[in-house]
């Protein structure tokens, strides 16, 4: 796992909190006060994603990305507070290696992308079946 808002942070690990909720330790947090600031940060992260040229796509994303937005709002009249979480997830697409012409590192990335999408599919199926 790599931090798209601080590219020096690589090999970050997923942990679980006391409620068994997964989180990435050491990931960058930014505090904003406007939608424009949110979009600027998302653009910064997007610009730090790894892309490659393939026969199928000139700008092929080589990774998945997850942006977690914590939303907090307070009513100044009654001081009531509301909070929420918004996950924005962009999954790299599965690739037919024979059509992309991938070789070397791009081929290895394609295999990892396909493997991770397959694992995600298994998790979703297990959740839908109630076996998890």
Automatic annotation (TrEMBL):
<comment type="similarity">
    <text>Belongs to the TRAFAC class myosin-kinesin ATPase superfamily. Kinesin family.</text>
</comment>
<dbReference type="InterPro" id="IPR019821">
    <property type="entry name" value="Kinesin_motor_CS"/>
</dbReference>
<dbReference type="GO" id="GO:0007018">
    <property type="term" value="P:microtubule-based movement"/>
</dbReference>
<dbReference type="GO" id="GO:0005874">
    <property type="term" value="C:microtubule"/>
</dbReference>
<keyword id="KW-0505">Motor protein</keyword>
<dbReference type="InterPro" id="IPR027640">
    <property type="entry name" value="Kinesin-like_fam"/>
</dbReference>
<dbReference type="InterPro" id="IPR001752">
    <property type="entry name" value="Kinesin_motor_dom"/>
</dbReference>
<dbReference type="InterPro" id="IPR036961">
    <property type="entry name" value="Kinesin_motor_dom_sf"/>
</dbReference>
<dbReference type="Pfam" id="PF00225">
    <property type="entry name" value="Kinesin"/>
</dbReference>
<protein>
    <recommendedName>
        <fullName>Kinesin motor domain-containing protein</fullName>
    </recommendedName>
</protein>
<feature type="domain" description="Kinesin motor">
    <location>
        <begin position="1"/>
        <end position="132"/>
    </location>
</feature>
<keyword id="KW-0547">Nucleotide-binding</keyword>
<dbReference type="GO" id="GO:0003777">
    <property type="term" value="F:microtubule motor activity"/>
</dbReference>
<keyword id="KW-0175">Coiled coil</keyword>
<keyword id="KW-0493">Microtubule</keyword>
<dbReference type="GO" id="GO:0008017">
    <property type="term" value="F:microtubule binding"/>
</dbReference>
<keyword id="KW-0206">Cytoskeleton</keyword>
<dbReference type="InterPro" id="IPR027417">
    <property type="entry name" value="P-loop_NTPase"/>
</dbReference>
<keyword id="KW-0067">ATP-binding</keyword>
<keyword id="KW-0963">Cytoplasm</keyword>
<dbReference type="GO" id="GO:0005524">
    <property type="term" value="F:ATP binding"/>
</dbReference>
């Amino acid at each position: 796992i790599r931090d798209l808002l601080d590219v020096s942070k690589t090999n970050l690990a997923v942990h679980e909190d006391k409620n068994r909720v997964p989180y990435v330790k050491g990931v960058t947090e930014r505090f904003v006060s406007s939608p424009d600031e949110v979009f600027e940060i998302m653009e910064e992260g997007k610009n730090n994603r790894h892309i490659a040229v393939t026969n199928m796509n000139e700008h092929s994303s080589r990774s998945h990305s997850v942006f977690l937005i914590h939303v907090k709002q307070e009513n100044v009249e009654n001081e009531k507070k509301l909070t929420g979480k918004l996950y924005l997830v962009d999954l790299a697409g599965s690739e037919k290696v024979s059509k992309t012409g991938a070789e070397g590192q791009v081929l290895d990335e394609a295999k990892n992308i396909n493997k991770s999408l397959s694992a995600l599919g298994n998790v979703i199926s297990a959740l839908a079946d109630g076996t998890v």
